[in-house]
Design goal:
Blueprint: H1 17-28, E1 29-31, E2 37-39, H2 45-48, H3 51-69, H4 81-90, E3 94-95, H5 96-101, H6 107-119, E4 123-128, E5 131-139, H7 141-161, H8 167-184, H9 198-208
Antiparallel strand pairs: 1-2, 3-5, 4-5
Helix pairs in contact: 3-7, 4-7
Length: 209
């Protein structure tokens, strides 16, 4: 017969599942100085100190928030559509090649964007009479109307996503990102105007002298 185990002198502890779950949740979350609760993550200290890693991770959420904001519009699913519409609105007749260059997009990506916008009835593409290989871009009447609506959506989405930052922090972040972009994307949109750049000031000074 199997030996019987006398458990009269043993204490059997049954863990409190609610207390245990709360403890586990507490370990997974922390609070910032502003009182915002954030989830902690596994130790990947090799990466967490890298700005490139932090920006890549954040870019996923930025793109997701953008797609959600524009889900019911022709500007959803993919980057570059809204920027292209605004660019053509401000520069009627701009070439497809130039529109791609200032957005840092290759020819294939730009053709795809223009195809989608043209199929949606927001933009027209026609050969330049002076250079047949060049395609001129112009907004349709509907495209011009939609640009105004899209800008309102973009401003609301941007304000919501970065609402955790105060105004000073937002301005500082914009300056830092623009500083990096001026080095790595010097010919793209959204940087300071040429007149405000030191090189432009030097060139003006040289001409006037």
């Amino acid at each position: 017969m199997p030996e019987k185990l006398d458990v009269t002198n043993y204490t059997i502890v049954v863990p409190n599942s609610n207390r245990q779950n709360a403890s586990m949740r507490a370990k997974r979350t922390t609070q910032t100085d502003d009182g915002v609760e954030v989830r902690s993550s596994p130790d990947i200290s090799v990466l967490t100190g890298l700005l490139s890693f932090q920006l890549r991770m954040l870019s996923h959420s930025i793109n997701r928030a953008y797609n959600e904001a524009f889900a019911e519009t022709e500007a959803s699913s993919g980057t570059g559509k809204l920027t292209t519409l605004l660019l053509v609105s401000a520069n009627p007749g701009i070439s497809q090649t130039e529109a791609g260059r200032v957005q840092n997009k290759d020819r294939a990506a730009m053709v795809r964007i223009i195809d989608q916008l043209e199929q949606s009835g927001l933009i027209t593409r026609s050969p330049d009479p002076d250079e047949r290989r060049r395609h001129r871009l112009v907004l349709t009447r509907r495209g011009a109307a939609e640009v105004k609506r899209y800008m309102a959506i973009a401003q609301a989405y941007d304000s919501g996503f970065f609402s955790v930052l105060n105004e000073a922090e937002r301005r500082s972040l914009v300056r830092i990102v623009q500083k990096l972009r001026r080095i790595h994307q010097p010919e793209t949109l959204g940087l300071d105007s040429p007149a405000s750049r030191p090189s432009s000031r030097r060139r003006r000074g040289g001409k006037s002298g």
